[in-house]
Each structure stands twice: as structure tokens, then as C-alpha cells.
Design a protein that fits this description.
Elements (H helix, E strand, L loop, with lengths): L21 H9 L10 H5 L28 E17 L2 E22 L6 E14 L2 E15 L2 E27 L3 E24 L5 E6 L4 E17 L4 E8 L3 E13 L3 E12 L3 E11 L2 E10 L4 E2 L4 H13 L4 E11 L2 E10 L6 E6 L5 E6 L7 E12 L2 E18 L12 E2 L6 E2 L4 E20 L1
Parallel strand pairs: 17-23
Antiparallel strand pairs: 1-2, 1-23, 2-3, 3-5, 4-5, 5-6, 6-7, 6-8, 7-21, 8-9, 8-10, 9-12, 10-11, 11-14, 12-13, 13-15, 15-16, 16-19, 17-18, 19-20, 20-23, 21-22
Length: about 475
């Protein structure tokens, strides 16, 4: 096996000296440290806030004790239509990327087992839930003629750049919940994850002499990752009164095993080729506390707060993993999320709405970068690579007694600064860009940074059966 020789250089709290691969850092957070929160249309309409309400299989996404709240069996399936749009601005120009994709977003069920005894334990329920989301995301940055490069074939200017990611993230959960006297509920679950990621990092440089655009691949890209992981969760819910409930849950870190294949260039021994690599990764431990107000059978309100308690951590096989861990140790903030959701019932009609806020994962970072005029200087960013996220949702449903149908819509927005172009070759690291066509090599001590506005418009339709 050919082991990578790239290094993520030392990083102080104020200066982001050199990224081995921005896409790798980004994917560590929003692929391997996150969890697919695509539930039923009801769950999504309430922004995923159900930690103290429970009652269906989607409880396995927040608090497995919610399985114990169910008093009847239920199965459902959800079609998701996910729309993703990036508006990337740089040098006075903008490129829009958009993609819409339909898929099975969620499926699950609960089997309720009433205990026919005089004991205060009323139900033992078993649940299963499958959640699935697309990872497709393309950030296309426009060119800027003021940013120049000296290549072996002559002078050139920046024609554009693209990060392209394609893939899926899924979570299959199995759990059990128990009901004690309809006032106290406990639950536990096992979660199995699968991720598929295909990542590209391409730079275009336009030759001054003939306007030819030479396309460069970053060292060790494209790469593909096929990963599996597992975690466990436990939770409790207690009724303080008929109208108020409190809940708490804990999800262990997800223990990932990642199989990678990456393209390498200009290796002194192997030249150009493809090599395999294995990684082990541990995501942050997460805790959730919840509160719910149930005014009557017609109105309910739930608030969840989730906090990451630890930092992302790679098992160290060499310099790459050691320096990645150093970066996250010094610059990663424990992410938190607040989710608020409500439901109002008018006879058989259901009206729902929700909001969630996810905090930014990084402290402010400073980079040496090109400005729009091509000048070089230090700039601090509070939202480099990723930023905070806002989600607004609403939905409607209708209950036909045994059958029901629900629909919902989500709008998810974020804005972040997108660094690229820095590429350095040293004694024991290589992050340069390579052209397979002209055989040119591009290096730069400085970043270019574009601004990305991301908007996701998601639609969900759920059909379910209660028995």
C-alpha cells in the first residue's frame, strides 16, 4: 500500500498556515461528524424537534426513549426531493450551481407490545428507522485575470476552480423503548452508518499566449471513500405533569472505518497512479436535552438542544492524521444545535412548523490570500470552509384513521468563505496542482477565497399506516 506523504502543517489559533486538503477538513465535519436528520414529513416539518415528544420510529434520530411513548404499531415511508443551490462569487463574477434529486429519504416502523400484567410497566416497543441524504455539492468559483501564475509553458491567469462532491450518507437504527406507568420512558438504540464520497478538486489556468485553459488536479485527488460506522444511543423522557415533559439522550461517538482510493501525481518512485489507504475516525460524542409542552390533544410544542462534547479524532498512522488532529484540537468548536417544532390539530388535519440553528464549527481563521486586484495580504474569516446554518420548515398532514399522508417543506441556508489554490511542495509533503495534459505543476503560497451562499429547498411526502 502506498501511504500518502502530504502533511497538514502546524496551525496556530490565529493563522491557518496550510491546508492539506480543504475538502478533507470540510468532509470530516459535515459528513463524518454529522448524522442524516431526514425523517418523516412530520419530523422534517417540525425541524427534527421531537426529543421529548417521541411516539414513532423517528425517535431514533433524537431520543430512543420516544419509542416507549407509542401505544400502537406504525410503519411509514418518505419520498424526499432535495434541491441544492450554490451561488459562488469571486472577482466581481458569480456562478450558480443547482441540482435536484429524489430518493427514499426515510422509512421506519414501531411494533408496540402491551404488557398484560399488573406491573407499572405498560409497553415494551421495538423500532427501526432508516434515514438517507444526498451529499452532492459543487462549488464552482469564477476566474480572475488579476491573479496570475508563471507556468513552464508561459504566463497564465486564474480561469476558475471547482470542488465537486458526490455521494450519500445513510443511517440504519434499531432500538427498544419502554413505558413505565405512562409517566416515564426509557430507550436505547444501535446505529449503523454508511457513507459514499467521490471528491474532486480542479483548478483552471488560462494561458496568456493562446487563451488555452489548462486543467490541473490537486495532488491526491480525485479521491473516493467508502465508509461504515456505528454508534449507540440511550435516552429518557419524564412527564412532570400532563402538560410538560423533559427528555435527555446521549449518542456515543460514531466509530468510522474509511477505505480510500486517491490519485497521485509525479511520485519519484511510482509516477502517476491510484493508491489505496485506510483510515479510522471517531466523531464527537453528542448529548441532547429536550422539553415539550402538550397543551391538549390539539397542540404540542417541542424544543431540543444538542451539543457536541468532544472533538473529531483520527487514529494516527502518520503525519497526516497527527496534523489533522492538531488542527481540530486548536480550531474546532463543539457544535451545538437548537431545534423548535410545533403541531396543531384541527380534527383530522395537522398543521406543523419548525426552526433550527446549527452553530459554526470553527474559530476565526486567518489566511494569506489574493484580493480581487491580485494583491496578497492576510485576512481573517469567521466562516472559513463552513459556517452556521439556519433551517425553516412547515408542513401539513391528514389522518384517515388507519392511514395518513403528510407533506412538508424545508429551507436551509448558510454563507461561508471558500479557500482554494494554495499548493506547496516540501520535503515531506506535496499539495501542488498537476496538469495531465501539459505536465505542468502549479504551486502557490497563498489562497484565493470565494464567497458561497448555499440554499437548500427540500420537499417530503410521507405515507403511513397505523395498526
Amino acid at each position: 500500500m502506498l501511504k500518502k506523504s502530504l502533511v497538514l502543517m502546524g496551525i496556530s489559533a490565529a493563522f491557518f498556515a496550510q491546508a492539506q486538503d480543504v475538502s478533507l477538513i470540510r468532509n470530516t465535519v459535515d459528513v463524518y461528524s454529522s448524522t442524516p436528520m431526514v425523517g418523516s414529513a412530520k419530523f422534517n416539518a417540525m425541524a427534527g424537534a421531537n426529543g421529548a415528544l417521541g411516539g414513532d420510529a423517528n425517535s431514533l434520530l433524537t431520543n430512543p426513549a420516544g419509542l416507549g411513548v407509542a401505544i400502537s404499531g406504525e410503519v411509514s415511508a418518505t419520498l424526499s426531493i432535495m434541491g441544492n443551490k450554490n451561488k459562488t462569487s469571486f472577482g466581481g463574477q458569480t456562478i450558480d450551481y443547482s441540482k435536484t434529486r429524489g430518493d427514499l429519504g426515510n422509512a421506519g416502523g414501531v411494533i408496540a407490545f402491551p404488557l398484560m400484567t399488573e406491573s407499572a410497566w405498560k409497553f415494551i416497543n421495538i423500532g427501526v428507522n432508516f434515514s438517507n441524504q444526498s451529499l452532492d455539492n459543487v462549488i464552482q468559483t469564477p476566474g480572475n485575470a488579476n491573479i496570475t501564475a508563471a507556468l513552464p509553458d508561459g504566463a497564465a491567469s486564474l480561469d476558475g476552480h471547482a470542488y465537486s462532491r458526490y455521494g450519500n450518507l445513510s443511517k440504519m437504527s434499531f432500538g427498544v423503548g419502554a413505558n413505565y406507568n405512562h409517566t416515564f420512558y426509557i430507550g436505547a438504540g444501535l446505529n449503523f452508518f454508511n457513507a459514499s464520497v467521490d471528491q474532486y478538486d480542479r483548478l483552471g489556468l488560462r494561458m496568456n499566449k493562446n487563451n488555452y485553459v489548462d486543467v490541473f488536479e490537486r495532488q491526491d485527488t480525485p479521491y473516493s471513500e467508502r465508509a461504515s460506522g456505528f454508534s449507540a444511543s440511550v435516552g429518557v423522557i419524564g412527564k412532570l405533569s400532563p402538560n410538560f415533559r423533559l427528555g435527555a439522550s446521549l449518542e456515543t461517538p460514531t466509530f468510522w472505518s474509511i477505505d480510500r482510493e486517491f490519485s497521485f501525481y509525479n511520485n519519484p518512485q511510482y509516477g502517476n497512479g491510484i493508491a489505496p489507504e485506510d483510515r479510522k475516525f471517531t466523531s464527537p460524542l453528542k448529548a441532547t436535552v429536550s422539553a415539550a409542552f402538550v397543551a391538549s390533544k390539539n397542540f404540542s410544542l417541542n424544543v431540543d438542544y444538542t451539543l457536541g462534547l468532544t472533538k473529531p479524532d483520527y487514529k494516527v498512522y502518520g503525519l497526516v492524521e497527527r496534523d489533522l488532529n492538531s488542527f481540530f484540537k486548536e480550531n474546532y468548536k463543539n457544535m451545538s444545535e437548537v431545534r423548535v417544532g410545533a403541531e396543531y390539530r384541527v380534527q383530522q388535519l395537522r398543521l406543523r412548523g419548525g426552526y433550527s440553528y446549527l452553530s459554526s464549527p470553527f474559530d476565526a481563521l486567518t489566511v494569506s490570500r489574493f484580493d480581487n486586484a491580485g494583491n496578497i495580504g492576510d485576512q481573517s474569516y469567521s466562516n472559513l470552509m463552513l459556517s452556521d446554518r439556519n433551517l425553516l420548515s412547515f408542513g401539513i398532514g391528514y389522518d384517515f384513521k388507519s392511514f395518513y399522508i403528510d407533506a412538508s417543506y424545508q429551507n436551509v441556508t448558510s454563507k461561508y468563505s471558500n479557500p482554494f489554490m494554495r499548493s506547496v511542495v516540501g520535503t515531506d509533503y506535496d499539495s501542488a496542482y498537476y496538469s495531465l495534459d501539459s505536465k505542468s505543476i502549479y504551486t502557490s503560497d497563498d489562497y484565493a477565497v470565494s464567497e458561497v451562499k448555499n440554499s437548500r429547498n427540500n420537499f417530503f411526502i410521507t405515507v403511513g399506516w397505523k395498526f
